[in-house]
Write a structure and sequence with these properties.
The complex is a heterodimer of chains A (about 260) and B (about 260). With about 260 residues, chain A is α+β, with helices and mostly antiparallel strands. Chain A has one domain. Chain A is built from three helices and nine strands, in the order αβαββββββββα. With about 260 residues, chain B is an alpha+beta fold. Chain B has one domain. The chains are: A alpha+beta (about 260), B alpha+beta (about 260). The interface between A and B is large, with 72 and 70 residues.
Chain lengths: ~260, ~260
């Protein structure tokens, strides 16, 4: 009969050994996660908006924002939709299908299941935006990101006011001077991604405009579907959108 | 005392096994994250010139008949755009970007083009995107199997799974929508398999992808070629690949001039 003290020592040593083996094999050191634990600094996964996902208060617009200006921005957005342009931000974060968010070591990529949006790249490895003298403004803008506790803070500038869908949820529109700050945080034990969007632009907003989206995490086995194509030369589609298919060259009506 | 010796031995064996496993895994995973630009090593000079740099696929007679005429045979491969137009006659050029790309994927499928691609590695998935619209390619690293083609929405990008093998990322893609491959006048279908081995140079600056298309019904023998890429410098960022079908300038070069 073995000594009970030795048996306890043996059991303890074996438990440590097995635990250390699992930890080392998974390469996670002391941060090994069980399915119930959440790494608050990893947003990787598929995230989808639902019917109760959006909190969008009306924007406090600057006095200079007239009905005529808003009509012009609406026209830009209509044109971008009709011609299947890249729609950019903020459309990209509001697509009806899941966003694939993948977090690497140097950047986080947000890829929408959409044929009219390009992936966003949130750079973790730099703290400044490119020099405006060399940056070509874009519909997505340039995004840099850092972690502040459990919150990912994303700062975006460098927008092209002529590219894509410029209208912003709740009112207003993005200009070349627009500044967007987003805060991403996992809530509900990692099953919900809470994102607040704050747009600042003195010419458009009297006070910064903030709204909030909540994305629900999809199964790890989610399979993205092919995107729905967009045919700018589909006369029936253009008619549905309230327009007429015309030649961009001559302005004359086109038949297919 | 003997019991203690056995336990101690078991302890070190267990810990040692774990450490070895970790070392093997981390050592076998190349750092592919970042932007990659295709090296035009042959100086193709044009879309078709680049295509000519690749070997020609050897297809079975059934699939050879499916291919459109090659540019070398006097047509540009897209019969719809070969009808002559009169000078000043406005017409629209087929623009894949304007028509939505036909199903997403890596641009419009698995084939690369002159724009750089960007790769981000995570435990469950590798995401490959490029400059321009489209959802990119999703390479699942979680051990899942390919879906049955009859229960899957086929596309130009197909369905990709990957694993690391001897320091390379190996990606297997199938479930393709029927159509031509981007290079070499090959063909792909629901049961075709594309194997891509991502081979990183020792200094991490050069990436060669070894491609192998295989499908006994389509190919007489596997269709194999390589494409090389250089890593974009540190601090590089994605720019916007803007293609506006409404922009008259994008039509300028193809308006037929007066013939004299």
């Amino acid at each position: 009969m073995a000594n009970p003290g030795i048996m306890r020592f043996v059991a303890g040593l074996l438990a440590i050994g097995v635990g250390a083996t699992i930890l080392l094999a998974q390469g996670r050191g002391g941060n090994m996660q069980s399915p119930k634990l959440v790494n608050s600094h990893d947003l990787s996964g598929y995230w989808e908006l639902s019917f109760d996902s959006e909190w969008i208060p009306p924007a406090d617009l600057a006095p200079g924002v007239t009905k005529e200006i808003l009509a012009l921005e609406q026209k830009k957005t209509d044109k971008a939709i009709q011609w299947c342009n890249q729609l950019g931000m903020p459309f990209l974060m509001g697509v009806s299908r899941p966003l694939d968010i993948r977090q690497g070591r140097r950047e986080i990529v947000i890829s929408p299941e959409s044929s009219v949006a390009a992936a966003r790249h949130l750079y973790l490895d730099r703290t400044e935006h490119p020099n405006p003298d060399i940056w070509d403004p874009s519909a997505n803008g340039d995004s840099i990101a850092h972690w502040d506790g459990d919150t990912l803070v994303v700062d975006t500038t460098g927008f092209n006011p002529e590219h894509g869908m410029t209208l912003i949820p709740g009112g207003g529109y993005r200009t070349a001077d627009a500044h967007l700050v987003e805060h991403y945080k996992l809530v509900s034990n990692g099953n919900v991604l809470d994102v607040t969007f704050t747009w600042s632009d003195p010419k458009v907003y009297k006070t910064p405009h903030t709204y909030q989206f909540r994305y629900y995490k999809q199964s790890d086995k989610y399979e993205p579907r092919p995107t729905i194509g967009c045919n700018a030369f589909d006369a029936e589609r253009v008619k549905f959108l309230g327009g007429t298919l015309v030649s961009p060259v001559t302005g004359k009506p086109l038949t297919q | 005392m003997r019991v203690c010796q056995i336990v101690a031995l078991a302890f070190f064996v267990l810990v040692g096994t774990g450490a070895q496993t970790r070392q093997k895994d981390s050592g076998a995973i190349p750092d592919l994250e970042g932007g990659w630009l295709r090296l035009d090593t042959g100086g193709g000079g044009s879309y078709h010139g680049i295509d000519l740099m690749f070997p020609r696929a050897e297809l079975t007679p059934k699939y050879t008949k499916l291919l459109p005429p090659d540019m070398d045979e006097g047509l540009n491969g897209n019969a719809a755009t070969t009808k002559p137009h009169q000078a000043g006659d406005p017409y629209v050029v087929y623009q894949p970007g304007a028509r939505g790309g036909g199903g997403g994927g890596f641009g419009v499928g698995v084939d690369i083009n002159s724009a750089p691609f960007f790769l981000v590695q995570t435990e469950g998935e590798i995401l490959i995107t490029r400059e321009g619209a489209g959802p990119g390619r999703h390479v699942f690293m979680d051990g899942r199997a390919h879906p049955d083609p009859s229960e899957f929405v086929l596309s130009g990008a197909g369905h990709s799974v990957g694993h690391y093998e001897n320091g390379k990322l190996v990606v297997d893609t199938t479930d393709f929508a029927p159509g031509m491959t981007g290079f070499g006048r090959g063909y792909k279908g629901p049961h075709t398999h594309l194997t891509e081995a991502f081979d990183l140079s020792a200094d991490g600056q050069l990436l060669t992808i070894h491609y192998k298309w295989d499908d006994p019904e389509i190919y007489v023998k596997p269709f194999i070629y390589d494409i090389s890429f250089e890593r974009l410098p540190k601090g590089s960022y994605v720019t916007e690949d803007w293609n506006d079908a409404a922009d008259p300038l994008s039509y300028q070069s193809i308006v037929p001039p007066e013939q004299k």
